[in-house]
Amino acid sequence: MDRLWGRLGSVLIVLAAAMSPASAQWDASKASGFPGDRGRMFGGLPFPTGPLPPRPAETPVSPALPMDVALVAARAATAACAGYHVGVAIVDLAGMPKLYFIADGTAGNHAYTAFRKAFTALTFRQPSEQVGEATKTDARLRDRVVADGNLLTFAGGLPIVMNGRLVGAIGVSGAEPSAVDERCAVAALRRIGATPTD
Question: Measuring CA to CA, how many Å separate 64 from each of 22, 33, 141, 161?
């Protein structure tokens, strides 16, 4: 009987440790897969009672467009794509979202497509469409794109270069064909004085 209680006690200790705030604070397995997403704190449930573990350090903020400039770019892209329902995403230099801009009447999924185009342009420092062209002759690159759910090589993602410095990327999604998305992204870059990448 003592052995049974001993084993039961060990099981309870293991369960308590597994459910403790310190170990349950972040559930990275439930993260979206987008850059910087740490998942849900405490499994998405309210804070537990009692003392909380120390708050994790904030992720350093990377260089990016100021928000007012990002909004000007998003509105310029949307205006250039008049007649289409487009979404715009702008990412910072670390590939993390700076802005999702979904015009009225546009389906929200365009935020994710635009993000992936922008992330691709940032990752490879070139327009997303050029990355797509390169995958046709570069098997290793093709495999890398297929393996990373954040990469998308449709046209519409462009690096943002301000005063000779890369500061992030923009993606536009929703126009057909996607070459129109790229033209709208170029218009956005010109509107804010960024250098369009050919």
Answer: 33, 21, 27, 10
